[in-house]
Amino acid sequence: MSKLRVNCVEENSHSRLHVAAKSRWEEWISTAASLYPVYVTVGGVVACLRPSTFSWFVNAGPTSYSLALGFIMLAMGLTLELKDLLNLFLQKPLSILFGCAAQYTIMPAFGVIVSKYLALSPSVSVGLILLACCPGGTASNVVTLIAQGDVPLSVVMTLCTTLGAVVLTPILTMILAGTYVPVDAIKLSISTLQVVVAPILLGSYLQRKFPRAVKVVAPFAPLLAVLTSSLLACSVFSENVVRLRSSMVGLSVSSDLSLFNRVQAIFASEFGAVVVAVLLLHFAGFFVGYLSATLVGLAEPQRRAISIEVGMQNSSLGVVLATAHFTSPLVALPPAMSAVIMNIMGSTLGFFWRYIDPSDSNITPEATDKS
């Protein structure tokens, strides 16, 4: 009897050590996945300095872009429990519905306003509006966690807006950008269904059908997804770097211009116009998203979640749709630039909010972190 008891103790101790080691290992992978803004920023710098680094991926496009986004969405499906998300939806239906409505009204409206205000070229305007009509991105969930926002709300909003993108993204793009170039809403809808919704549903099916295998793979899914997303965004950005850089060099070498006038000329150029447009679009999403959630009386964690969710788009989807359905490479430039600019802005806002306690919340920061 004592021997059996000793064996049991030894087995339990070994099990606890194994779980602890596994937890630390998974925590390291999770931390690496949360560095998505760093990967995109570094990749953007590499794309500026040496665009040929991504030529192998660019030359295989747009097929490589579609496959990459499909893989990202599959990874998302593997990590989502649709049953749990449905329960969360039943717990906070009004907050979720309001957040989804804000996503598909605030950003599309400001996409049109910014493009008209800055008098952007037709191709860039279409790209900006297409970006504005995309659903929320998965990076928003990480930023919401950093900002001590309502993480479950952010996750459910991402899933709901992503599923809704099959109908809403094509229709809104056709209505708002159809004045610039012809937009085939049906083809956009089919592409969105193929590269976004189908992989998510496949991932959810695999999770139910092969739980053991998925349990082994799932910890790696977020990291692989953010690395693939970084590769996708930076590759499209590198396509446009050569031409944009040459126009900037032409402006910067003009010896008869002062430093201030050179900077002004660069921001007045095509490159500068895209940067300013993307900055204004995401700033409007963050600010108006937070303001609207405040006006309807939501608590601080929900305000932060909705602000971040509205302000951070699925730029990868914008890149794929732009390269697959529009002839001008400039249409894909706003979504590609957004991947870099949006993550820098969102991460900065997240870290700012991290040090401001959401005082009117009923949950503690510790509980939010654990979620």
TrEMBL record:
The chain crosses the membrane at residues 64-82, 94-114, 126-147, 159-180, 186-206, 218-238, 271-293, 332-353. Gene3D superfamilies: 1.20.1530.20. Signal peptide: none annotated. It is found in: Membrane; Plastid, Chloroplast envelope. Keywords: Membrane, Transmembrane, Transmembrane helix. Pfam families: SBF (PF01758). It is a multi-pass membrane protein. One of its GO terms (cellular component) is chloroplast envelope. InterPro entries: BilAc:Na_symport/Acr3, Bilac:Na_transpt, Na+/solute_symporter_sf. Belongs to the bile acid:sodium symporter (BASS) (TC 2.A.28) family. PANTHER family: OS12G0170300 PROTEIN (PTHR10361:SF66), SODIUM-BILE ACID COTRANSPORTER (PTHR10361). This is Sodium/metabolite cotransporter BASS1, chloroplastic. It comes from Solanum stoloniferum. The lineage of its organism: Eukaryota, Viridiplantae, Streptophyta, Embryophyta, Tracheophyta.
